[in-house]
Amino acid sequence: MIVDDLHLVKDIVESCDYQRRHLFNAVIVALLSKAHAAGQRLAFSTDNAPPPLANRAHTWDICDFTPADYQAICSAYFDPAIARRLDFGEIHRFAPNLNAHQLRKASVWLSHELGADTARFIEYLTTHNLASNVEIEEVEPVDWNDLRGVDDVIEALEAKIALPLEDRVLAAELGLKPKRGVLLAGPPGTGKTTIGRALAHRLKSKFFLIDGTMIAGSANFYSSVNRVFEAAKRNAPAIVFIDDADVIFEGEHGERGLYRYLLTMLDGLESESAGRVCVMMTAMEASSLPAAILRSGRVELWLETRLPDEAARASIFRDKISCLPATIGAADVAVLAAASRGLTGADLKAAVEDGKLLFAHDKANGKQLKAPEQYFLAAIETIRRNRRTYTKKKRPQLTEALSIGFKAE
User: Fold this and answer.
1) How far is CA 171 from the centre of its chain?
2) Torsion (CA) 171, 174, 180, 186 in degrees, nearest 10
3) Structurally, how many domains does the chain consist of?
4) DSSP alpha helix (H) spans, 204-344
5) Is the same domain home to 300 and 319?
């Protein structure tokens, strides 16, 4: 008799609201005793053998699949000529944690493909077996070219994150791994989330997002976070991107234990099976993060996004207005760059959009048009005024009358 997935049966039994403890173990002991008396043999498959079974049974472990295992499984389902064309070492480097069922499905599909090769096999895996928790089609398409003034950040991400993830041959040759923990810190609007979007498009099925929408209002967010990490391990090499980590950790409600949970996750990434998962966090204030998260060994790479300098601001304005009609697109970029000192990249984008609206309003109402840069300068001034208004400290309002001074006897 074969008993498959014993751990699932155990989970069902132990989830019942029954007062007697160790009921499942008692059943296993009785079952083994009956089989022994009858001279029968039982075969169990499980990922965690209960003590009565572990103490009485012979145990065989099925280890992680190697490239040779991939080849043996796949070769059973397609023509030997196809098998000779495939580089199973490359396939294993791309997705080292596939199970036999996934390999069988991929092989059956590949057997009907003309000119099937390693690239097509990997393409199938990306589409059908490896899945991010982010709908890439819904993410704004951006790349490194959309960032200005943070060339050092981009270079570090290319060398220490993207290269080990993307160049599988070089990673295998030199034993390269992405940094285990990365902190991306900087003021709001300086491109932290844009970097996340660029990575999402670049890595596709190997990008996993944790943000406030996953945490807020969830009574069991630990299981959601755990599913993300497990999926990232299966898809490794992969990135788990935690956006606005400082805001999440400041919640101090149901999120209080989240950082302790993440400590366990980060420490677990030292294992061989999870060593190719990178956890990248963004934060406005690094000081708001728990000190234990930032200690050496957990966050291995610190990067800072900054306000764009004058050259970066000019480049941003040039990119945004170069495609506009000459009546508005001929604005003096140097003037705009000089006038926008201290603004973030997000502010500059908003200034362009608001400037276009001001121009369109004048044109639609038949007013005399101003010099193109005047519309953008007006938008910049509005952004500055709003910022001054929002950053002013408001005087506390008194909710009741107060007596100040000494009371008369």
Assistant:
1) 21
2) -80
3) 4
4) 212-215, 221-234, 245-249, 258-268, 291-294, 310-321, 326-329, 333-339
5) no
